[in-house]
Specification:
Biogenesis of lysosome-related organelles complex 1 subunit 1, 125 residues, mainly alpha, BLOC1S1
């Protein structure tokens, strides 16, 4: 009877050990699956962040190139406008010069008319 109780006790202990070992293996498998799922989920986020970062870097480079081109074009426009302004000033200077010459010529013409009229009157007297 004592040996039977001992055998039953040992059998129950072995059964419990096997159950405990099976549960331990199941827990390890479940923990491994959970860890893999979490890592996969994090990797998806990291991969998406990496892709987004590469896109942003490409956009930054494109924007820098376009900004440089715009700066060059703006400088060209500024030079064109300055040239146009200079041309307008020169036209204004030529116009003022022409008016000045015209006024001088009218003054000379009027003076010559008076001289000519004076000579005609002096000859007729």
């Amino acid at each position: 009877m004592l040996s039977r109780l001992l055998k039953e006790h040992q059998a129950k202990q072995n059964e419990r050990k096997e159950l405990q070992e099976r549960r331990r293996r199941e827990a390890i498998v479940a923990a491994t699956c959970l860890t893999e799922a979490l890592v996969d989920h994090l990797n998806v986020g990291v991969a998406q962040a990496y892709v987004n970062q590469r896109k942003l870097d490409h956009e930054v480079k494109t924007l820098q190139v376009q900004a440089g081109q715009f700066a060059k074009q703006t400088a060209q426009w500024i030079n064109m406008v300055e040239g146009f302004n200079q041309a307008l000033k020169e036209i204004g200077d030529v116009e003022n010069w022409a008016r000045s010459i015209e006024m001088d010529m009218r003054t000379i013409a009027t003076a010559l008319e008076y001289v000519h009229k004076g000579q005609l009157q002096a000859t007729s007297s």
